[in-house]
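Justification of resources, computational component.

The compute hours requested in this renewal are based largely on the per-chain cost of generating structure records like the one below. Each record pairs the submitted sequence with a full structure-token output. That output is archived, and it is also reused by downstream analysis tasks.
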Amino acid sequence: LRPVVRYFSVFYTGNGRVARIIAAAAAKHLTPLTLELGGKSPVIVDGTFDIALAAKRMLWGKITNAGQICVAPDFVLVLREKQEELAAALKVAHDSFYPEGALNSMSRIISDTHHKRLKGLLERTQGKIVFGGRTDEKRGFEPTIVKDVSEGDSLLEE
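The structure output for this chain reads:
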């Protein structure tokens, strides 16, 4: 017989599919459970904020663990007249963080399944890629900026 491992509490951050498996296992032993299932993490940049500073902070938040943390920015709301300035500032911040390029310098996507899923989202977007978007066979994925993303776009599905 396998020993039953019981926990005082379980905390899970991730997706709903895995959360159902964890919840079912915890329920067998009436183990308290906290599920943090993500959602969207928008960034709002108003017209009075220092765009270069905002870009640097946003990019840092997004590239931490290749963006695979629950508080990583998912999308940015910025005044249309500031969009180009912000995109340029993000490129400057990116180049300062990764002078040799990001693809060989940053964390990898956690699994082949998630790498393929992310590539699919980017391939289906109707928005315009400003920079980034390259991937490699080692689950690398460059930080990517896409502009003019409309409601219902593939990038806003998850």
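The CA atoms of residues 9 and 17 lie 20 Å apart. Helices lie at 16-27, 51-63, 83-97, 112-124.
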